[in-house]
Each structure stands twice: as structure tokens, then as C-alpha cells.
Amino acid sequence: MAIRNTAGSCPHVHKKIKAAFEAFDYQSNHTVDVRSIGTVVYSLGCFPSRPNLHDFVAEVGEDHTGYIHLDKFLPAMTKKPLMLFKVLDKEKKGYLESEELTKYLTQEGEPFSQGEMEEMLTALSDNDHIYYADYISQLIFDPDT
Amino acid sequence: MWHLCCYGDARKDEKTAIKAAVLIQRWVRRYMARLEMRRRYTWNIFQSIEYAGEQDQLQLSSFFSFMLNNVTHLNGNGPDLISKLMDSASDPWLENENCYNLVTVPETYTGPRLSFPLSVSDMNALLGAFKEQQTLHARYVLQLLHETRKLLKQMPNIIHLSTTYTKEITICGGDLHGQLDDLLLIFYKNGLPSAETPYVFNGDFVDRGKNSVEVMVLLFAYLLLYPDYMHLNRGNHEDHLMNLRYGFTKEVMQKYKIHGCEILQLFQDVFSLLPIATIIDGKILIVHGGISDQTDLDFLSILERHKIKSALRFPQTTVEQLSIGQSSRQVKRIRSTDSSRPSSSRSHNIQRTPHQSGSVFQLPFLDSLSAPSPPQHEQEWKQIVDILWSDPKTLKGCCPNTFRGGGCYFGPDVTRRLLLQHGLQLLIRSHECKQEGYELCHSGQVITIFSASNYYEEGSNRGAYIKVGRELMPRFYQYQVSRSTRKLTLTQRVRAAEGSAFRALKEKLFTHRSELILGFQEYDHNNTGTILVSEWAQVLETGLRLDLPWRTLRPHLVRLASGGRVDYQSCFEDMEPGVPQVEVTPNLADALFRYRKDIEIIFSIIDKDQSGLISIEEFRHTWHLFSAHLGIKIDNRAIDDLARSIDFNKDGSIDFNEFLEAFRVVHKLDNKDQPVNRIIGKE
């Protein structure tokens, strides 16, 4: 299985997540109140539904102190998005063929037009294999902006 | 959200997959939109800065013209210094048909040797040598230019071509701008010029790139070899006054230490003899810039084109119009057409409050304008300027091109009228960089074709050329010279281009530092070092007039302070002067940073032998000229002190390049070999 990189290993993304997290870390001990975690997540450009957010909190805040630690939050934030692509990567190859991805995104969900699909591929990939782990974090947290 | 688990249930799997698709699609759409935004403003930054430079050159040239026409005596010999430049009387040596024979080629010269009349083998030798980065010996350059001049003198102003004799004609946007790689790539892809493959090159062969001489030599050599299959239109950079700012003059002087001056003078002559338009089958008009509502093709075909040595050499009465140009400078950019997507076109009709600033270019003694020059000459000048400098716009009508500072913006109605009047179908022009290398506007009646790929920055744009056959349907061919072996993704290209756009913009900010700081301080009543974002944006637009979306660019330029305010000093913190400051008074330093390029141009005009040295006396004269140009009062004694202090070896001469180096803006991080980081504010 050829996974070249793990999502979120990009320092920019880590910085961005950390910065958002720290803004709510009132005690400066790398924790954020569970009740604020939604705000942190939203501010990073992710918009989970309430039940989903609830599940997320349950997973990362398992010790029931009412606070979530950065050490748990950071890997969860960076790894979870990866699951999305993994769902599509049925054979667990670590990459998706552009044909595979095209078929998927132009037929399911809120389908892409042919033009949109081409744009996505030229923007993000330089060959036919899309190593989604490489740029998933870029796609979601867009470290350049 | 992404909270998905994989259960064994197939139906659930499917549901999960659809959910995943929806999320990925949303993210991709958002990402693509942001990327496009960045691409757009990067483009705007490059274009704004480019056109601001053109404006500066026009201002400087107009100042020269004014001085020459109106001021006979300015604290010494000011006009004498520039008269040579503006009205260069031809060197008698160059008039001699065989002067190049007096130049000997040493045995040790390993570059190509040409024999005239040129043959295909000469061309192969040239192509081979230029690929190896060799330089052609001055003797051959001189002879080539002599022969070219002779040939061009026989040519009409407007060349008429026909597709009946050839299969197809290739039209290159020109705008090669000394990018030899692009020319070679076109030849490689499309074939070398020949009876089978005739070419039209549409101006702007020189300046900016590193190989203007080579590009020019190849084009002229093919012109001599196949005068019927190679056609060159003049562009706005085939102009010795433009060459002073944009690098061709420097390139020639660096490559030809001994005969540089003669070569330049011949180039100047040859440029003024280039045809100004080409018409294919009486249906397709090809000019470099465009047209105006005054454009008269009949008049253009009979005027004496070689009289217009430079479009920047204003006829006397037109200097008056400069004051008009000044007042309308605030109108700013009209984007002719949107440079990438028709869907996102927007109109720019922003009314701006008149800006009062004493330090903008001012023409002193305007009232003293005297005897106008013959109207005939002025008319010729105006006709040619419009052809070389104009850009199309989407709105109807015709108005001065204040964003560039020269030529017109012409609307679809202007195009339609001219085409109809002459039974034409199409106007092909160049002059503007386009992301895809070409663009259609005015309902397809105007095509812009641009042949320098990566013009602003590696990856910024593609180049293109057009082929037309007998049916007169243009077909486009795009290409991009690539230095890196790996194909870059759009994201990587946008990131690279964006980085260098911000570098250029920060330099611009730094050169206007004192003026901007004054502006910021006006809003900073309590000396907190902070002002509101809106105030910051206002000051930048008023001070720089680049017509940029400052709020959008804000995170890259300045750090946020609390309460929606910015720490305005932080927009200068990445920059510093080239070398430790020479001791000068603050207002002198300001002028030096801001007008460094202008001063360099004036210095190099004075430095006739291009030694890089000028005398203290000349240095002082430059300042007299220049303080008049800027309308600022600079104390004579301060200049004298400065001159003495920088004459390091006390021999009475000043190395002005070294002097100006102190007023070059550099990026602090570059010195430390670190990547350029943006200012990351707490948001």
C-alpha cells in the first residue's frame, strides 16, 4: 500500500489548527472547553451537523473533564477528513485513479460538471494517480489563505 | 461532517459514500473558487505595476520633450544633455554603407560568421549558436542592421499579404520581449520561416527578456532571407526611449562593450522603419496595439513613418495634453476584457475623488508653451501612437488610455466602424498579456494574441500563435516554455506567481514609504501606530493608485492589531535598502527610492560612453533637471555635499550604479536564504 504522506503532516495546517484552537484556550494549558469546540471547528471551515459534532466530541473528549486537549484534537482534525477519501478508496490503495474519482464525483452527491472535474484535476494533481492524503488538508484548510 | 464509519452493511456503505462525495464536492468548489480569486488578484497586481511603469516612462519622456521644446537654459546645460537622446542626429560613420567593414573580427572569435546575402546555412549557424548562448559579433550585427535598414526603406507602411500563394500564414503575437526560448519553441512547433510557413510577428520583440538582441537578429535575418515570407510590425517597445527603461539599451551595452552605441543607433533607425500594420487578403488587419476613433488607414499608409522615432517624443503642442492626462489619471484601469473568464467580467467605473499631491509629476512653466509644431507632424504622431499603444474595452466609445498613460481604449463600436469602413472582418492585435495567450473580444471582431509565455512569472500565462488559411478562420495554438521538468499543478503555479506578485507589490509600497506613512499618520490621531483597515486601504489607493482590492490583499501585506485595526508600520518590515544608507537628507532619500529608475535613466543618458561613471558636475546637473521634474526643492548645497561624499576615491567621478544601489529595495529574508514568508496576523 503506497501512502506517501499522512494528511496534516503539513506544518502550515498544523499551525492553522493550533492557532484556531489556542484562541479559545483561556487557561493556556492546551485545552478548550467542550462547548467552544464547535466554534473552533466552524472557524476552520468545517461545518458538521449537530449530531456529527456531538459524535466528534465524544470521540476526542473521552475523559469527560469538559475539556478537550490539543493532543487529541489535532490528530482528529487532520485525520478525519482522510476517512472521506478512504471510503472511496475501496481497495485501500492509498490513491485514487483520476478515472475512478471522476466517475464518482460526476455521478454522486451534488455532481460535478465535466468542466469542474477537469479544473479540480489540473489544480491538484500532476498525474493520473491522486494521492489524496497529500492534499486533503490543503483542500479543507487551505493553508495559503 | 467527516464522521463516517465503515460498517459491513452494503446499503450503509453506499449512503456513506454519497455523503462523502457531497462533502468532497463542497470542499473542492470552495477551494477552486479561492484559487481563482488568488489567480485574479495576482494578475491584477502584475498588470497594475506593469502599467504604472509605463506611465512613469511616459511622464519622464514627456518631461524631456517639454524641456527640449521650451527650456533653452536651465541652470546650465540640461536640455543639451537630452537633446542628443531625443533628436539623435545620425552618426555620419553609420551612414557609410560599409562602416561595418572597418570592424575586424578577431581570429579568436568562435561564434557564428555570416556572409551576405544570407543563406539557409547562415540561419542554421545562428540558431545553433544562440541555442548555445553565444553572442553574434558586433561586425555582423552592424551589417545585418544595415541590410535590414536598406530593405525596410523599400517597404510600405502597411503590408498586404495574400493567402492565395501560401497554404497558411502564422501570426505570432510578437510580444516576444527578448524571450528567445519562446521564439525557438514556436519555430520548433510550427516550423522555421519559409515559403511554406510564412510568419507575421506583431511587435514588441525587445525589452524585459534577456535575449532581445538574439530575438531581433533572428527575426531580421529571416526577414532578409525571405522578405516575402517574414513580416514584422512595429510595437510600442520598438522605441529607443522605452528601451532605456525596459532593458534593451542595457542588454546591448553589456553584450557589445565596443560598438554598443553604434548598434543602438542603428536599431533605433531600423525600429522607426518597421511597417506599422499588416493586412491579410484585405480582410484581417494586424497591428500591435489597436485603433482609435481617429484611426485613418489611408492616412497611415501615406505618412512618413520613419519620422516617428519614438512615440514618446511628444510633438510640442501635445505636451499640453499632459496636464489633461494628469487630471484624468484617477480614472484608472478599464479592463478591456476579462483576462480569463467571460462570466466574471465586471465593469470599472469608479469615480474617484481628485487627488492632490505635490509630489506627483509636475510640469513646470507649462504656461510658457510657445510656437506649436506643424499640425501635420502631430497628426502623424497621434495616428502612430494610437496604433501602437491602444487597448480594446468592452464599453462603447473611445477614451484616453490613462492607465497605461498612452494610446486609447477603444470600444466595440469603434472596431465595428473601422472594419466596416474598410471592408475588413477582423482585427488582430497584441500588446496585452493574456493568461491563455489569446483572447477574443468585441463579439469576436478583435483577437488579442500574446506570444511570451510566463511573462509575469514562471507559470503566469501561456503563449499562443494563430494560423489562418484561405478560409480566414483563425486557429489558435498554445504553448508554454517550461524550465522545470516536472509538470506543475495549477495550485503550485498560482502559489509561485502570487509570491512574486506580492514581492513586487511590497517593493512598490516601500518606495512610497514616507508618503504612505504620512497618510497613515493623518488617521492615527493618538499615535498608536494603528489605523482602521478601511483607512489603511484608502491611504494605499490614494498614494499608489494601483486600483487593487486592498482589503482582500490585506493579510499578505500588513499585520492586524486589535479592534479591526492594522499595525501600519508592518507593511514595510520585510524590506530594506540595498546597501547601508548613504547620508542624505530625508526628502532626497524619498525621491531617490521612488524615482530610482528615472534617475538611473537620466544618469545613463548623461554617461555617453556608458562607463558607469559621471562627473560631479554632471551629477549636479542631473539634480537640477530632476528637482525641476519633480517640482521639489532640493538644496544645492545638499547636492554638493552628497556628490563630494560619494566620490569615494576623490577623482571627481561618481559610480552612479553603486550610488543607486543604496536606494534599491531588497527583501530582508532573501539575504538570509530563507523562504519568503507572509506576514501572518492573528485573526
Rg of chain A, rounded, reads 17 Å
Report strand order across the widest sheet of chain B: 1-5-6-10-12-11
CATH class of chain A: Mainly Alpha
Estimate the mean pLDDT confidence of chain A.
78
Q: State the share of residues found in helices of chain A, binned by percent.
A: 55-70%
- Report the order of strands and helices of chain A: HEHHEHEHHEH
Q: Ranges of chain B with pLDDT <50 over ≥5 residues?
A: 1-8, 72-78, 317-331, 336-373, 671-683
State the helix count of chain B: 24
Content of β-strand of chain B: 5-15%
The CATH class of the domain at 114-314 and 403-482 in chain B turns out to be Alpha Beta
What would you call the structural class of chain B?
alpha/beta
- Uncertain runs of chain A are 1-8
Q: How many individual helices of chain A?
A: 7
Classify the secondary structure makeup of chain A into a structural class.
mainly alpha
Instruction: State the fourth-level CATH superfamily of chain A.
Output: EF-hand
Strand content of chain A: 5-15%
Counted beta strands of chain A: 4
Distance between the termini of chain A: 32 Å
Protein name (chain B): Serine/threonine-protein phosphatase with EF-hands
Cofactor (chain B): Mn(2+); Mg(2+)
GO biological process, one term (chain B): detection of stimulus involved in sensory perception
Family (chain B): Belongs to the PPP phosphatase family.
